[in-house]
């Protein structure tokens, strides 16, 4: 991406129906759950399990999955550091809109760079006491490369090892694990909790923080 553009002479337009009114109408609180980890670490599986679990509790969530967004919104982006940064920036903005609409937004992207994840977090500050609405909580799929690679659901690790894909995360491109995150889901070779068990952990966290309360 060369230039991100710059607009002058623009003014914020305040919508008369506010966030708190929207939340009351649909009886839920908007927030963002950001899932980060290597390819094959289980991000999409967790995102979809969480989506289903929230649905069965009467809470509407929506999954922004990196792979899927790259079919549309982000189809112009590749995997250079610059493009990954722009990818995460855009998804952070979209996630913010979803949360503002009152939705529980589940973003599942490799999001390999700490600074990009931090920038998304900064867009979604934790609530003050009047507007308890946004939450950007990072869920780190701490799955070792060896396990991701042994899964190789899409055959991409094999291609990356053969040098047929350049700049593959974990092989010849970096992944910076979170230094501190709200939820860390560890998987080790040979012992994996089920996706349902993992998503229950995230649901418990949301419940504990009051994000699943009636509005
Ligand atoms: N070079 C390279 N590195 C990493 N991943 C690659 C690459 N090329 C293609 N893919 C496929 O793209 C999916 C990752 O997209 P993301 O948008 O989540 O990536 S990123 O956050 O911008 O790093 C990723 O999906 P997941 O396996 O679900 O993580 C891969 O299927
Ligand atoms: N908790 C789990 N236990 C066992 N296998 C899992 C688990 N989570 C994911 N998998 C498997 O790992 C592979 C990669 O999962 P996926 O969700 O596509 O990862 P990612 O979105 O991070 O690339 C899939 O084949 C999936 O079935």
Automatic annotation (TrEMBL):
The keyword Cell membrane does not apply. Transmembrane segments: none annotated. GO terms for molecular function: adenylylsulfate kinase activity; ATP binding. GO terms for biological process: hydrogen sulfide biosynthetic process; sulfate assimilation. The keyword ATP-binding applies. Residues 29-185 form the APS kinase domain. CDD domains: APSK (cd02027). Gene3D superfamilies: P-loop containing nucleotide triphosphate hydrolases (3.40.50.300). Keywords: ATP-binding, Kinase, Nucleotide-binding, Transferase. Pathway: Sulfur metabolism; hydrogen sulfide biosynthesis; sulfite from sulfate: step 2/3. InterPro entries: APS, APS_kinase_dom, P-loop_NTPase. HAMAP family: Adenylyl_sulf_kinase. Belongs to the APS kinase family. Catalyzes the synthesis of activated sulfate. This is Adenylyl-sulfate kinase.
């Amino acid at each position: 991406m060369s230039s991100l553009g710059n607009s002058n002479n623009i003014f914020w337009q305040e919508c008369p129906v506010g966030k708190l009114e929207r939340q009351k109408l649909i009886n839920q609180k908007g927030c963002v759950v950001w899932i980060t980890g290597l390819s094959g670490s289980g991000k999409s599986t967790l995102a979809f399990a969480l989506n289903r679990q929230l649905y069965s509790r009467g809470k509407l969530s929506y999954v922004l999955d990196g792979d899927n967004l790259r079919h549309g919104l982000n189809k112009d982006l590749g995997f250079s550091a610059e493009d990954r940064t722009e990818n995460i920036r855009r998804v952070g903005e979209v996630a913010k809109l979803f949360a503002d609409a009152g939705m529980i937004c589940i973003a599942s992207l490799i999001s390999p760079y700490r600074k990009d994840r931090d920038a998304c977090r900064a867009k979604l500050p934790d609530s003050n006491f009047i507007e308890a609405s946004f939450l950007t909580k990072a869920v780190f799929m701490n799955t070792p490369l060896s396990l991701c690679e042994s899964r190789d659901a899409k055959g991409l690790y094999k291609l990356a090892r053969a040098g047929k894909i350049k700049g593959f995360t974990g092989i010849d491109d970096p992944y910076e694990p979170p230094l501190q995150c709200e939820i860390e889901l560890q998987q080790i070779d040979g012992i994996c909790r089920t996706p349902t068990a993992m998503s229950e952990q995230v649901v418990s966290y949301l419940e504990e923080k009051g994000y699943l309360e009636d509005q």
